[in-house]
Amino acid sequence: MNKRTKILRNESEQMAEKISKDGRQVLEDMVLYIRGVDISAYDQERVRRDITQMILDGEQRGESASSVIGEDYHAFCDNVLEEIPRLTAGQKVMLCIRDACGAVSVLALLYGGLYLALAAGYGDLNAAGPAYIEVTLGKLLQFVIIAAAATWIARIYYRDPYKSRYKEYARIIVSVGIVILLSQCAATALKQTLFIMHAVFLVPIAIILLIIYKLLDVRAG
Question: Would the keyword Transmembrane helix turn up in this protein's UniProt record (predicted)?
């Protein structure tokens, strides 16, 4: 996220603090919907600030958020977003790479930390067993499936935040279960060894991926 986008976000958050609890709930649902639309982060924050200002101004006049926005928040957002340019194919690819780098970096740290903790438990960080990771085709595919699913599941929630929370949680739980099953099947079935590496090398890999994530995030706006 670049500087101008951060400024808009801070302005929106400061204004949102002045809105009533019910108004904030309406605003949060609308912001979730906006997050799922293929527009730049700057445009998302610009729309968020404008809607926040509208709700705040309405409440200061004694009107509720529903009175200002209308009962159909979804339709209101669509009308506001209609004139905003969508992301190009290149920008979408860049965001996918950004999200993948973020997800894989977190997984790398978790994976590396787990193996190093096991090695420390054995009392030898150079122990041939626990400190070294045998990277198989299945494990690599498992990594990719989990990283891709993390981004996809987030988009499921953003796409329609007006649905019942219970239905949404059920969809997410089912999706997570399917991802775990598929990734575990891949890890179990494809045992061809690609290479072996020490767990400590996952730390610099994760740091590099986080740097790439940050650079792409700033570039994306």
Answer: yes
Query: Contact, 153 vs 162, CB < 8 A?
Result: no
The structural domains of the chain, ordered by start, are 3-81 (1.10.1900), 89-220 (no CATH)
Distance (Å, whole) CA 131 – CA 123: 11
**3-class DSSP assignment, residue 133:** strand
Q: How many Å apart are CA 83 and CA 47, to the nearest integer?
A: 11
Distance (Å, rounded) from C-alpha 122 to C-alpha 139?
23
Distance of alpha carbon 133 from alpha carbon 143, whole angstroms? 13
Percent of the chain with pLDDT over 70: 87
Distance, CA of 62 to CA of 84 (rounded, Å): 30
Asked if residues 67 and 73 have their Cβ atoms less than 8 Å apart, the reply is: no
For residue 39, give the DSSP letter: S
For residue 1, give the amino acid letter: M
Supply the pLDDT for residue 157.
58
CB atoms within 10 A of CB 143: 19
Binned at pLDDT 50, 70 and 90, residue 160 comes out as: low
Beta bridge partners of residue 132, listed in sequence order: 198
Q: Which two tokens stand for residue 213?
A: 């994530």
